[in-house]
Specification:
- It contains 13 helices and 13 strands.
- With 363 residues, the protein is of the alpha/beta class.
- It folds into two domains: 121 residues, Enolase-like, N-terminal domain (Enolase-like, domain 1, 2-Layer Sandwich); 224 residues, TIM Barrel (Alpha-Beta Barrel).
- Helix 5 runs parallel beside helix 6.
Length: 363
Amino acid sequence: MQITNVTVDAYDLGRGFRWGGRRSMDVEGVLLTLEGDDGQQGSALAWTAELPVRAVVAAIEEAAAPLLVGADPLDRPRILTPLWRAFRVGLPLPVIGIVDVALWDLAARSEDLSIADLLGRRRDRIRGCASAPPVETAEDCEAMVDELLDAGFRAIKLHVCGDLETDIAVCRAARRAAGDEVDLMMDAMALYDRYEARSLGFVLDDLDFRWFEDPLSDEDLEGWRELRRLIETPVAGADSVRFTARDYGRPAASGAFDVVRMDAARNGITELRALADLAASLGLRCEGHSFGSALGQAANLQVALSIANGDFFELPVPVGGLDVGVQEGIELDEDGFVSAPDGPGLGLELDPDALAACRIDFN
């Protein structure tokens, strides 16, 4: 098969989403569609975080499209290697993830298989974990946890607001509201210094949290190793745009992490699967980071269904809030699990009318 056409557009995915550190964000995304000479199409839609969406569109058009037209979607190394070289000198990372996911989606759809099947499926469903917005008070936290439990979640990841005293109170409130049978995690978004991370880490030990994510800046690897020696709660990281699977090797082997994380929508399905294999060789867990568009969530889910050393699928809250542009998003079942979509490739289908309504026109 050869790729015959490359289309890239930008979309407004929603306004005012809450994030860690008392931040809100307006979410914009880039959709890449690859068409093969057999008529099949493969797509990827990734949010651009705080990058200008126009810059990501331009980078795909100028750096990636010439590599894609006429290529076989199975020739991922030939396409991605020049992009990784360009990333080292300034290419936006989402370009690589978007291209890689679209290549996987096209290849899988051409074989009428899911991406999990191409990777080697190990299971059909995985436990869902609510990726909850930050809250400012213990009372707000208790109300939020109650709502998430009512929705069926039995695993909840909190995000710090950045004030240590408030964040400690929120963690205690979350455990009170959740009881002992629910898995709780905390994501510090790399906002803390070593003293603050230690202080919160000791509290998480007392509260039996499942992991402590991104407690420190990813440059402070000695701080990560020290924290891991001091606390019992597993340390998860680093959700960094600078960390590829190769970059993870030395810090992971030196004892910086118990759990490694990466976003397939941003780094690519190929890279996340490579990280999972690296982690398995070191006896570590690997958890995808899927806060983003529905297609980005689906990319992480397909990898999660193909590996043995991951336990959760991160589902952004409110559920469906980032599902713009697809006919049906990923949902939690009554048992607190997320199941594989039925369709080929990523398993989700685009909604052309919804996409047309939120397309960003640069003219």
